[in-house]
C-alpha cells in the first residue's frame, strides 16, 4: 500500500489495483459480452466506427460511470436506488437484483457454459440429469469463489482472469493479423450509432456495475481497514481505489471490445449467415482448427463463470444491505445458486428468449440513477421523476417484447408511433426528460424524506 501523498488518501499498490481492475474486466466480460460484439462488428460493415462509437458510450462509458456514481452516492445499488425514495429503492432494487441474479442472468451463464462444453465433447442430446449434475457442479465452483467476500478478487485474479485474458488476446491477435474477409455494407436499417448504442446497453453492464461495485468496496475496505483510518479517510480511500480499479478494468474491456468488433467486421464477406456463438466459433476454427474451437469454448466457460460469480456475490451484498444485516450473505448466495440451477436446466435458448424483454425495463432507470447521482445530485425531485418515468416506460418496453413473443408483434404500434425515438429504442429519453421536469417542479418537496431514505 501507499499513502504517502498530499491528499492523505490511502492508495493501494499497482499490483493490487491491477488485480482489482482485471477482476472488474472479468466480471463484466461474461458470455454475452464475449459473443455479441463480434456479430455487431460484422453487421456494422463499412460503418464500423460510428457503430462502435454508439456501443462505446452505452457499453463502456455508462457502466464505468456507475462506479463513480456508487462512490458519490455512498454505496452500490440499494443505497443509490433508495436515494429516489424507499418505495423505489425496494421495488426497483430488488426487482433488478433478482432479474440480474437468479431469475435470468445467472442461469444464462451456466446454460451458456453447458452449451460451450457440449460443443467440445459432443454432449448435445444428453439427458436432463447430466445437465443437472453439471449445473450443480458449476455453481458449487462458483460458491467456492464467493463464500468469503473478502477473497473474491484474489481468487479470480489468480485463477480465472489470466486464463480468460490470455485465450481471448490470442484469438483476437490471430484474427487481426490474418483477416478472413473484408467488411460489407452494414446489415441493419437504423443509423450505425443508434445500432451500436442500443445493442451496447443490452449487455446490461450498467446495472451489473451497480452490483459489482459492492464486491470491490468489500475487498478494498478489507485491505485498508488494518491501517485504522478515520471514517472520512476510509470513505475517500475506498472511492479512489474503487474508481482506479474500475478504470483499469474498463481500459481492458475497451481494447477487447474493439478487437472483437474488428474481428467480426473482417468476416462480413464470408460469414454473413451465422451469428453470435456460431460466428465467433467459425472464425476461431478457421484460424486455429478444431483445437482452437475447443479452446474458444473453454474461454467461454471462464467468461460465463466470472460473471456468475460477480452477480451471485452482488445479490448477496444487496440483500444483506437491504435487510440491515439481518440476512446472512452465505445463505443468500446459496439460495441464489439453487434457484439459478433450477432455472438453468431449462436451457440457454429459452432463457435468452424470455430474458431480453424484461432487461429493457431495467436499463433506463439505471441510466437516470447514475447520471443524476454524478452530475445533478442536488436535483432530487428531478431524479425521482426521471427514475419513475423511465421505469414506467421500461415496463411498456417489456410488455411489448413479451406480446411479440406471444405473436402480437404490433400490439403497441400506435403508442410507439407517437413517442419520439421509440421505434429506434430511444423511447425512454423523452420520458426521462419529462419525468425530470415534472419531478423538479412537483416532487422536490419530498427531498427531506429522500434524505432519510438514503
Structure commentary:
This protein has 2 domains: 14-346, Orthogonal Bundle (Hydantoin permease), CATH 1.10.4160; 353-454, no CATH class. It is mostly helical and 454 residues long. It has 18 helices and no strands. 78% of the residues lie in helices and 0% in strands.
Unreliable segments of 5+ consecutive residues: 448-454
Beta fraction: under 5%
Total strand segments: 0
CA-to-CA gap between the ends?
32 Å
Q: What is the name of the CATH superfamily of the largest domain?
A: Hydantoin permease
- List the secondary-structure elements in sequence, H or E: HHHHHHHHHHHHHHHHHH
Please, how many helices? 18
Sheet with the most strands? none
CATH fold naming of the largest domain? Hydantoin permease
Query: In CATH terms, what is the architecture of the largest domain?
Result: Orthogonal Bundle
What's the level 1 CATH class of the largest domain? Mainly Alpha
| Mean pLDDT rating | 88
User: What coarse outline follows from CA principal-axis ratios?
Assistant: globular
Number of domains: 2
Helix/strand-derived category reads: mainly alpha
Rg is 22 Å
Amino acid at each position: 500500500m501507499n499513502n504517502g501523498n498530499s491528499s492523505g488518501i490511502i492508495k493501494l499498490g499497482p499490483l493490487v489495483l491491477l488485480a482489482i481492475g482485471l477482476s472488474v474486466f472479468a466480471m463484466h466480460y461474461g458470455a454475452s459480452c464475449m459473443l455479441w460484439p463480434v456479430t455487431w462488428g460484422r453487421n456494422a460493415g463499412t460503418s464500423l466506427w460510428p457503430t462502435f462509437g454508439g456501443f462505446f458510450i452505452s457499453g463502456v462509458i455508462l457502466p464505468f460511470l456507475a462506479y463513480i456514481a456508487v462512490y458519490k452516492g455512498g454505496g452500490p445499488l440499494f443505497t443509490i436506488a433508495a436515494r429516489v425514495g424507499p418505495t423505489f429503492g425496494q421495488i426497483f432494487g430488488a426487482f433488478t437484483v433478482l432479474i440480474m441474479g437468479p431469475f435470468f442472468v445467472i442461469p444464462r451463464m451456466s446454460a451458456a457454459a453447458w452449451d460451450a462444453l457440449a460443443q467440445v465433447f459432443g454432449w448435445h442430446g444428453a439427458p436432463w440429469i447430466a445437465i443437472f449434475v453439471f449445473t450443480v457442479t458449476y455453481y458449487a465452483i462458483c460458491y467456492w469463489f464467493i463464500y468469503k467476500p473478502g477473497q473474491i478478487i484474489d481468487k479470480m485474479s489468480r485463477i480465472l482472469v489470466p486464463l480468460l485474458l490470455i485465450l481471448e488476446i490470442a484469438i483476437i491477435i490471430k484474427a487481426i493479423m490474418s483477416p478472413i474477409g473484408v467488411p460489407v455494407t452494414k446489415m441493419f436499417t437504423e443509423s450505425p450509432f443508434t445500432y451500436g448504442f442500443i445493442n451496447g446497453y443490452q449487455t446490461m453492464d450498467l446495472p451489473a456495475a451497480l452490483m459489482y461495485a459492492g464486491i470491490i468496496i468489500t475487498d478494498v475496505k478489507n485491505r485498508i481497514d488494518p491501517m485504522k483510518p478515520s471514517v472520512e479517510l476510509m470513505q475517500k480511500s475506498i472511492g479512489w481505489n474503487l474508481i482506479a480499479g474500475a478504470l483499469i478494468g474498463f481500459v481492458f474491456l475497451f481494447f477487447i471490445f474493439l478487437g472483437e468488433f474488428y474481428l467480426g467486421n473482417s468476416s462480413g464477406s464470408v460469414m454473413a449467415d451465422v451469428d453470435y456463438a456460431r460466428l465467433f466459433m467459425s472464425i476461431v476454427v478457421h484460424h486455429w482448427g478444431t483445437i482452437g474451437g475447443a479452446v474458444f469454448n473453454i474461454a467461454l466457460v471462464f467468461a460465463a463463470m466470472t460473471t456468475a460469480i460477480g452477480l451471485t456475490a452482488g445479490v448477496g451484498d444487496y440483500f444483506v444491505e437491504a435487510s440491515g444485516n439481518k440476512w446472512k450473505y452465505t445463505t443468500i448466495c446459496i439460495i441464489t445458486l439453487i434457484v439459478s440451477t433450477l432455472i438453468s436446466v431449462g436451457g440457454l435458448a429459452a432463457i435468452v428468449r424470455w430474458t431480453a424483454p424484461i432487461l429493457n425495463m431495467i436499463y433506463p432507470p439505471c441510466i437516470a440513477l447514475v447520471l443524476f447521482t454524478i452530475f445533478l445530485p442536488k436535483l432530487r425531485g428531478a431524479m425521482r421523476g426521471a427514475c419513475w418515468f423511465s421505469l414506467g416506460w421500461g415496463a411498456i418496453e417489456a410488455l411489448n417484447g413479451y406480446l411479440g413473443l406471444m405473436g402480437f408483434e404490433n400490439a403497441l404500434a400506435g403508442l410507439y408511433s407517437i413517442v419520439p425515438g421509440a421505434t429506434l429504442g430511444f423511447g425512454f429519453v423523452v420520458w426521462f426528460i419529462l419525468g425530470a421536469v415534472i419531478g423538479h417542479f412537483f416532487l422536490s418537496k419530498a427531498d427531506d424524506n429522500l434524505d432519510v431514505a438514503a
